[in-house]
Known about the structure:
Blueprint: E1 3-17, E2 29-42, E3 45-50, E4 59-62, E5 66-70, E6 72-77, H1 130-146, E7 149-156, H2 162-168, E8 172-179, E9 182-185, E10 193-196, H3 198-216, E11 223-225, E12 228-229, H4 237-250, E13 254-258, H5 262-272, H6 276-283, E14 290-294, H7 311-317, E15 321-324, H8 326-331, H9 339-344, E16 348-351, H10 360-375, H11 383-397, E17 414-418, H12 430-438, E18 443-448, E19 451-455, E20 458-459, H13 464-479, H14 482-485, H15 492-495
Parallel strand pairs: 1-4, 1-5, 6-7, 7-8, 8-11, 8-12, 13-14, 14-15, 15-16
Antiparallel strand pairs: 1-2, 2-3, 5-17, 9-10, 17-18, 18-19, 19-20
The structure holds zinc ion (ZN).
The site of zinc ion (ZN) has 6 residues, from loops.
Amino acid sequence: xxxxxxxxxxxxxxWENAAPESxxxxxxxxHAFLKDCDLAFEGDTLAFVGKDYKGAADTVIDGRGKMxxxxxxxxHSHPNSEPLLKGLSEERKSRQLNMSSLYEYIFLLGRxxxxxxxxxxxxxxxxxxxxxxxxxxxxxxxxxxxxxxTCFVDYSATRPNWLDEVARTGIxxxxxxxxxxxxxxxxxxxEILYRWNEKRGRDGLDTAAAQIMRAQKHPSGLLSxxxxxxxxxxxTADLMRDASALxxxxxxxxxxxxxxxxxxxxxxxxxxxxxxIGWLHELGVLGPHFIIGHAMFLDHHSWIRGPDPRDLDVIAxxxxxxxxxxxxxxxxxxxxxHFGKYVKRGVNMGLGTDTFPHNIIDEMRWAIVVAKIxxxxxxxxxxxxxxxxxxxxxxxxxxxxxxxxLAAGCKADFSLVDLAHPSMQPARxxxxxxxxSALERPITDVYVAxxxxxxxxxxxTIDLQAQLAELTAGQARNMRGIPERDxxxxxxxxxxxxxxxxxxxxx
Length: 507
Ligand SMILES: [Zn+2]
């Protein structure tokens, strides 16, 4: 098999296994800087990471002036629906629903990701617009690859050609077909009600299981699966229990949205006299295979103020992971309280991009800044902790120790960062430059499974202009249906006001 070598990279972020005497460590080691780093791979696997590679080399890539970075792992995103809301939802949060945009605005562009299995006759949801969803997904993956993400969780409803479309981009995808037996709606903008249809949930579970097995056998070798019961408040106890049990049987992770809004927490208290996390724990579904999407409004949160907070302990003690997506919540004035507290309690944290942009470096920046503001303590959360979440934390949540790190035997998923890019200079600490100043701009090359997917800053596997045109047309098409889907029958301009008023000659 041909050996490709990246020679003489100025910097490498390499994985070091922990010495046994260093005490407990969730990941068995840590990322560290290595100057003058070589990296060699054969096929999809790293053969060498370190100094002075002396083995065979069929192809040599000059690493001078570059930093080698492990591929990022994004464990929570909805690429097939959320990019359609760009330019609309950013400043639209429902004050009457405790700031959440979920219940009032998220479905105004047609059925949300979780509801493609919904009853097609339900008036609140339009017809599935698969061309728009497909384009949204390609645009989102382009953003991910461009910013060094090499593996992501696609938490979406099943759609035709889904597996082939994501596999063609060359990214590693964890297909997470979502399903639920309840769907929320508001008749008036202040009350949330649920329509239940357990058969739909069961059918969704069966479809998801079949899709996961197809993903595992996909010829690309890049796909795997995850069970994804959509939200804690939209799945019955039986459905949630069976989804988690089936995930364990299939040996795949299971993720649901929980503690993502005050509305949800109140609803769970009303139904069960328990928090969302308390209810999941009572069902026995939590564990190392389980990921909580968001886990933000736990009972210690200042907007919840539970009488005897134990949600965080439950998450930590069961070995459950958290998918933290700070950007889109921070846009809505909501923060997790706080990242460093979760880490210090021993929770495995991963990062996700959720809505848009799908730029995990941006998400890392938000995670750090928001945590420091929420804790009022600059020492509460470090770049190292957040970088760990964006790499091995996400990998651990997916049950993998062969991605998110640069070490021999791991997958050849990595990026090259141009240290000479003005945004990186001075590159005294290139990780600080990348996260606090440069974001994706200096990333020149990205490899997944040893194959180049980004070169000279261009994504090689996606016709981005064509996909952007399709996405833009799809957004315009879907916006026309807003008045009929909105409880107040508002026009798009009323539901989603522009950021500035129109100039006189344009009114
Ligand atoms: Zn989500």
